[in-house]
C-alpha cells in the first residue's frame, strides 16, 4: 500500500530569461528530509520517485538530517540519489541544532561524501555549450550567518539565477532582483493544516506570507516553498503530505506554466 500517493509535485516554470540550452532542465528539490539514522519507508518512497523521474539536478533544501550523528548513514543513502548532472545541498536550522560544535562541518563533509556540493553563501555553476547556469545557496537564516553579497558574487551578469535557501525568510535579506527562481523549505507547509486557513505554524518571520507552494513576485521572479518530506520532533502531518518537488525549467513567454499538486 502506498502511504504517500500524493507526494510528487510536478512544476513546470517558464521564463523568458532562461538560456535556450537549459530549456527542459529537470530539478528535484528535496527539503526537510530529516533523515533519522536508518532508511525508513518514506525514504524508500523518495528514492523510488527519484529513480523513476531521473532528474538532471538534485537539491537538498536543509534540515537534511535530524541529528549530526545521523550523517554517516544519511550520506550513504543520499549518495545513491540519482542525478544526471549535479547534486547540491544547503543547510537548515537542524544542521545547527545539535550539541556538537562541528555539526555544520558535518553537513559540509558528509554532503561532499554523498556527492553533493554544499552551498553556504556560495554558488555552483552548470556548464553547457559555453552557457553557465548558476545556483546560489545560502547559510541558514536563523542559525547561520547569511551573506548574500558573498553568495551572489559573480552572478550579476547572468541572465538566469536559481537560489536555494532553507527558509523563505531569506527574502528579508535577498531582493528578488538577485534570483529568477528561489527554492525554500522549512515551513513543512505548516505540517498540520486547517481547511480554509492553512498553516497554523510556519516558524518564519514572514508568517503565512510564504507558507507553502508557488509565489510569483512579478517579472521573472518565482518562489517555491516546499512542504518538505520528513518531520522533526513533532511527527504528525494533517492535510499536508510530504513532498518531492520536480521542476522542469522552460524557456518561453510568461503564463504557460503548469502546476500539478494535490490540493491541500
Ligand atoms: Fe524541517
3D architecture notes:
It is a single chain. By secondary structure, the chain is of the alpha/beta class. The protein has one domain (8-251): 4-Layer Sandwich (Purple Acid Phosphatase, chain A, domain 2), CATH 3.60.21.10. It is built from 4 helices and 15 strands. The chain has helices at 41-53, 71-78, 103-113, 148-152; strands spanning 8-15, 26-30, 57-60, 86-89, 117-118, 122-128, 131-137, 162-164, 181-184, 193-194, 198-199, 213-216, 222-225, 244-251, 258-260. The strands form 3 sheets. The protein has a 7-stranded mixed β-sheet, covered by helices on one side. It has a 6-stranded mixed β-sheet with strand order 6-7-8-9-13-12. Helix 2 links the parallel strand 3 (57-60) and strand 4. Helix 2 packs parallel to helix 3 (103-113). The chain is globular and about 40 Å long. The relative contact order is 0.23. The model has no long low-confidence stretch (mean pLDDT 93). It binds fe (ii) ion (FE2). Residues 32, 34, 63, 92, 186, 188, 228, 232 line the site of fe (ii) ion (FE2).
Q: What's the quick description here?
A:
With 264 residues, the protein is of the alpha/beta class.
CATH superfamily: Metallo-dependent phosphatases
Number of domains: 1
Largest sheet descriptor = 7 strands, mixed
Note the overall shape: globular
- The CATH first-level class comes to Alpha Beta
Amount of beta strand: 25-35%
Associated small molecules: fe (ii) ion
The fold-level CATH name is: Purple Acid Phosphatase, chain A, domain 2
- Topology, number of strands: 15
Class from secondary-structure proportions = alpha/beta
**Widest β-sheet, arrangement of strands:** 5-4-3-2-14-1-15
Distance between the termini: 21 Å
The CATH architecture classification is: 4-Layer Sandwich
Mean pLDDT, rounded to whole units? 93
pLDDT < 50 runs, ≥5 residues: none
How much helicity do the residues have? Answer: 10-25%
Number of helices: 4
Our Rg estimate from Cα atoms comes to: 17 Å
Amino acid at each position: 500500500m502506498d502511504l504517500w500517493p500524493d507526494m510528487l509535485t510536478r512544476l513546470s516554470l517558464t521564463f523568458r530569461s532562461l538560456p535556450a540550452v537549459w530549456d527542459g532542465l529537470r530539478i528535484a528539490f528535496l527539503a526537510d528530509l530529516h533523515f533519522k539514522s536508518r532508511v525508513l519507508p518514506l525514504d524508500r518512497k523518495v528514492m523510488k520517485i527519484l529513480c523513476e523521474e531521473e532528474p538532471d539536478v538534485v537539491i537538498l533544501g536543509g534540515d537534511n538530517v535530524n541529528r549530526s550523528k545521523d550523517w554517516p548513514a544519511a550520506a550513504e543513502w543520499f549518495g545513491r540519489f540519482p542525478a544526471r548532472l549535479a547534486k547540491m545541498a544547503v543547510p537548515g536550522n537542524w544542521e545547527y541544532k545539535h550539541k556538537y560544535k562541528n555539526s555544520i562541518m558535518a553537513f559540509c563533509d558528509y554532503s561532499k561524501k554523498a556527492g553533493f556540493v554544499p552551498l553556504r553563501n556560495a554558488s555552483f555553476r552548470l556548464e553547457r555549450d559555453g552557457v553557465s547556469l548558476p545556483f546560489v545557496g545560502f547559510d541558514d537564516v536563523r542559525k547561520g550567518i547569511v551573506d548574500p553579497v558573498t553568495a551572489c558574487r559573480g552572478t550579476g551578469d547572468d541572465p538566469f539565477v536559481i537560489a536555494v535557501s532553507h527558509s523563505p525568510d531569506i527574502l528579508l535579506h535577498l531582493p528578488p532582483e538577485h534570483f529568477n527562481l528561489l527554492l525554500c523549505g522549512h515551513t513543512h507547509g505548516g505540517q498540520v493544516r486547517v481547511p480554509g486557513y492553512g498553516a497554523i505554524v510556519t516558524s518564519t518571520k514572514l508568517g503565512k506570507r510564504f507558507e507553502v507552494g508557488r509565489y510569483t513576485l512579478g517579472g521573472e521572479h518565482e518562489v517555491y516553498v516546499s512542504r518538505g518530506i520528513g518531520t522533526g520532533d513533532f511527527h504528525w502531518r494533517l492535510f499536508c503530505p510530504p513532498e518531492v518537488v520536480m521542476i522542469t525549467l522552460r524557456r518561453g513567454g510568461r503564463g504557460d506554466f503548469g502546476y500539478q499538486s494535490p490540493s491541500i
